[in-house]
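Board notes (copied after class):
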Amino acid sequence: MGICYVGCRTTAERGGKGKGISVYRTGTGTGWELLQVQEQINPSFLCLDNTGRFLYAVHGDFSEISSYAVRSDGRLALLNTVSTGGTNPVHLSIDRTERWVFVSNLQTGNVSVLPRRGDGTLEAPKYTYFIPGNGGPGYISHPHQVQQDPSGNYLIVSAQGRLQGLGQVVVYRIDHQSGALTRLCAALARTGAEPRHCVFSPDGTYCYGVNEKSCTVTQYGFAEGQLAPCRIVQTLPEERTAEGWSSGIAIHPNGRFIYVSDRKQNIVSAFQISQAGASKLTGCFDTMGQQPRFIDIAPGAGSLLAANELSHTIWEFPIDQETGQLRQGILRAETGSPVCAVWRSW
């Protein structure tokens, strides 16, 4: 039994059909039980704190982040809403001390550090760091994720170049006392690749980053805050000749399998990881819907969830624990424009 929180698109500009954060009770049968819809504008990415007592949501295309208390039955209660210090926040994470929340503001090219109070509420940003572009002042890159390595000592920012920036993955050291970030390195991507999200091997020795426009995954070695590119693999097999658009990436907790979703092909590609960390494409699986923007490994690591934004469904696919292949999917929820999901055990 558990609770799943689903973020969505709500605005007409995004073709949004959602109303806010949907709260589901899971493990009750084939379909999830809807407990609440916490109405909010474009809660496009969500994050729980380490205790599961508080939830945070950035409001995509706007400039705000909201904090919520998780009630005893799993429902949400709004605490406060503050500025992210930028425009179009698309990802967030909480440091291991739970004193700081990191937000990537895609449009304005900056990463913000917001203080978090003991009651779960947020303060205005204390620090803002811009990702440089390919020219002088005003040229920015566009951060799409603020991921942390397994140790929690480093913040890894996947950034896209677009018109005036550089596709790159930037590493910062986190000062947990002050919240300040120190830039350590930047690994440049191939021109036009556009890094989007990354995941780490459980021991933190490898980082895998999905590049949304080139439909590739870059493997990096990682040690003491330094990224070292090792190899690049395609996310689509040769026989899939249509255009792709990579989005989500997830790694199995056993460190043996990686999954990447494609929003145009409407598939999840599965990879096996060798002992040397190399990934090999082993299969592609239909997500049973359109535009799977978000995927993740479900609690217990027995299945993968895919949120199909344009067909308004969430499907769960059991994972073969020996091969990593996905089995016949189960429709868990029909919900407007889902783009993110997080879980809490209950």
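Comment from the instructor: The CA atoms of residues 25 and 66 lie 22 Å apart. The chain is about 0% helix and 55% strand.
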